Amino acid sequence: MNSFKLPGGFLLGTATASLQIEGGDRNNSWYRWAEEGHIKDGTHPVNAVDHWNRVEEDIEIMKKLNNQTYRLSLEWSRIEPVRGKFSKEAIDHYRWEIEKLIEAGIKPLVTLHHFSNPLWLEDNGAWVNHEAVGLFERYVQYVVTYLGDIVSDWITINEPNVYMINSYMFGEWPPGEKSISKFIKGSRNMILAHIKAYKAIHSVREGMNQKDTMVGVANHLRVFDSKKKTPLNNWISNLYDRMFQEIFITGMTEGKLISPLGSGYPLEKGKYYDFFGINYYTRDIVSFKMNAASLFSKREVFEGSAVNDLGWEIYPEGLYRICKKYYERFKVPIFITENGTSDEKDEFRIKYIYDHLYQINKLINDGIEVQRYYHWTLMDNFEWIEGLSSKFGLVSVDPVSYERKVKESGKFYSEVCSEKGVTKEMIKKYL
Ligand code: GAL
After folding, report:
1. How many angstroms does the Cα of residue 384 sit away from the middle of ligand 1?
2. Interval between CA 379 and ligand 1 midpoint (Å)
3. What's the CA-to-centroid distance between 136 and ligand 1, angstroms?
4. Looking at residue 302, which CATH number applies to its domain?
5. Which residues have CB under 8 Å from 108's CB, separation 6+?
6. Which domain, by its residues, includes 90?
7. Mutate-to-test residue for ligand 1 from 166, 314, 337, 376, highest number of ligand atoms within 8 A of CB
8. Residue 294 — pLDDT band, cuts 50, 70, 90?
């Protein structure tokens, strides 16, 4: 095992999402989804981990972890609780939180949509209704008008592909539908909403004379490798790549709709990214299967591969492959906007972090501009339909008292952040 050092300007931090940590909000699509009994372990985002009331305590933890940056998301349903009516109290709360981060020397990266919708939007057909585009744009304008003087870095939408597929193809997330036509409409609307938001953020901040605006999407990207390189297997793994990533990336970067979403440029052709955000977790080994119900495919991991608690392959080289591929295409700084693992016993997270950062170091040495790394996630939290029992955090949270405790992996990551790398001593101590 080798030591390594990342460049001085590289930023390390952690990422979270409002719905997964805040608690207290009953006005969003995931609250209802939990009420309807869809969460596997019966836990509920209305509790989450009480971050809304523990902002200062959690920022103290980030300081302890030597985080230089923090990716947070804003809950639309709190900021616009009723269609067209904005809550000064909610936006003030976020402003206060962001000011505290800045005081602590932690640079904020703010996500505007991370999987959860206000109930009024959900009941209006959510993203499948074209109205969502203009409604999102108005919300973004409101937020950036209030926060644009202190926030330069924005993510418009987190993982549009994962949201659309889980909500409208697999039917596992709210509103629980299985409809290709809704998937297509909703995906198209999310692309248009990103472009409108990209323009709105730039124009509002330009109006404030702010020149350092950075806007992007957090793209969930996986490697799809064929199990055996047969024509049918290759066809199905390419199809996964196209439907899961390519149609979203092409739309959100240049405004182009490709089949099956549409064709051409419904808005202006442009460049709608200042950085390229990558959420990387795993790869899928894909083969063709003669069964329509399973989308003519089987996704699995190679026998003997290391997997996490959710059965996802741990494949650090995939991070290298993906960053290289998209850097060569887009040539803008890459932010790893999420990377982490579900590991209840905190047995393999340290190695996971080491192995993935090692790949990042290699990428940088090969001239690929990776500039930031956000570990998913700061503390154990509400992991969507898995509930609170899937543990991705560097910090554990007691389910009753909400007491936070830095795990061994958190201690390791804290040293990684302060060293901006891994030293020989750290390898001896932790690995
Ligand atoms: C991502 C998502 C996060 C988090 C993570 C771990 O897809 O953006 O909210 O849940 O996966 O599964």
Report:
1. 8
2. 13
3. 21
4. 3.20.20.80
5. 69, 70, 71, 72, 98, 101, 102, 150, 151, 153
6. 4-430
7. 376
8. confident
